[in-house]
Amino acid sequence: MKTRSAFTMIELIFVIVVMGIIGKFGVEFLAQAYKSFIYSNVNNALQSQSAAAVELIASRLQYRIKDSVIARKGTTSAITGIGSAAGTGFTVLEWVSMDIDGYRGTTAANWSGIIDLDVGNSAVLNSPATDTSNISSLISTLSYGTKTVNNSALYFIGSNSDINGYGYNGAIDSQLLTLHPIKSTAITTNFIPRVGSTGNINSLTGIDIYEYYKLVWTAYAIVHEADNSLTLRYNYQPWNGDVIADAKSSIIMENVSTFQFMAVGSIIKIQVCTKSDIIDGDSTGGYSICKEKTIF
Predict the structure, then answer these.
(1) What are phi and psi of 219, to 5 degrees?
(2) More confidently predicted of 246 and 6
(3) How big is the chain by its Cα radius of gyration, in Å?
(4) Which of the chain's ends, N or C, has fewer CB atoms near its CB within 10 Å?
(5) C-alpha span between 76 and 164 (Å, rounded)
């Protein structure tokens, strides 16, 4: 009886072919699994980053003085009212914001938002339940010790809202424009004194004073930088002559391919697109995800 001591050539070839087929599909399977893993990680990261970016911007914009929002095509370029900012090329969204931290306070509001028109005079306004000393301390803390209530301003709800009255074109040295700077030499509890830049009392005679106001101490700007990062600028006061270059800057996110915004009435819609070159995208290169948010 004969016994087989080896494989035949045909059997060896068959085994090699089968192993080659298995190896080919196995490598492709592993490659596809790895690619899917990378895609999932990149997609999740971009989704999270872009969502966080629009939420941060929206959280700041919701406390804006609505008529103060402007657009620029660069940090030093001319201003355009947000309602007229049509087309592309705008890289800066800027606005003046109410002091929400002081208004909420810890146990009570530091400023009430109400003026008692029956008390005070043309130089000093009475704001019941307002503690300007606490406001000053809070603003100093939030501004890293660089500002106090003396650097802030009032905005009367229902008053003139000319876009040129917020200080974007230079410091405000009178009480005749949209914002009314607080420039006091002394802080009196429950009162908001307002004096001129020379230290003399600046009369409010002839100026419409409304019962409700908002206290503002900083402007904000979202800037799409040349390196494709998106930054938040804050802690600067246009009504006192500050410009965006004087602001503190914090990076919101990097690799931002698009930052766009538009306004319909007082509603603002923003869009942030971020990209990654790790995985292939369209013909322009990279993979992008966009997030949008509407702020009322």
Answers:
(1) -100, 165
(2) 246
(3) 30
(4) N
(5) 16
